[in-house]
Amino acid sequence: MRIVTETCPNCGTIVAGNVLASERVMNCPGLDCEQVLSFEDLSPEDRQYVREHAARERT
Ligand SMILES: [Zn+2]
């Protein structure tokens, strides 16, 4: 199983892909970091993977 993550380009905080999938757009959780992280920043392959994986986990 693969874990999709996004790394904040500003502070390096790693955010899980499934969190991004549910939030769509979120402020970086890093301390004093105002970077906006978006699900759309992930590659198409990663978005597809996260969507399928998240759907499976909710059932
Ligand atoms: Zn950040």
Average pLDDT figure: 91
Using only C-alpha atoms, the radius of gyration works out to 11 Å
**Biggest sheet details:** 2 strands, antiparallel
Distance between the termini: 18 Å
Count every helix, treating DSSP H or I runs of 4 or more residues as helices. Answer: 2
Chemical compounds bound to the protein: zinc ion
Strand content: 15-25%
Count of distinct structural domains: 1
In percent, how helical is the residue content? Answer: 25-40%
Helix and strand pattern: EEHEEH
By DSSP, the count of extended strands is 4
What is the general shape? Answer: elongated
Q: Largest sheet, order of strands side by side? A: 1-2
Low-pLDDT windows of residues: none
Judged by helices, strands and strand pairing, the structural class is alpha+beta
Please characterize this protein's 3D structure.
With 59 residues, the chain is of the alpha+beta class. The chain is built from two helices and four strands. A two-stranded antiparallel ribbon has the order 1-2. Strands 3-4 form a two-stranded antiparallel ribbon. It starts with a strand and ends with a helix. The site of zinc ion has 8 residues, from loops.
Produce a short descriptive summary:
The chain is an alpha+beta fold and about 60 residues long. It is built from 2 helices and 4 strands; from the N terminus they run ββαββα.
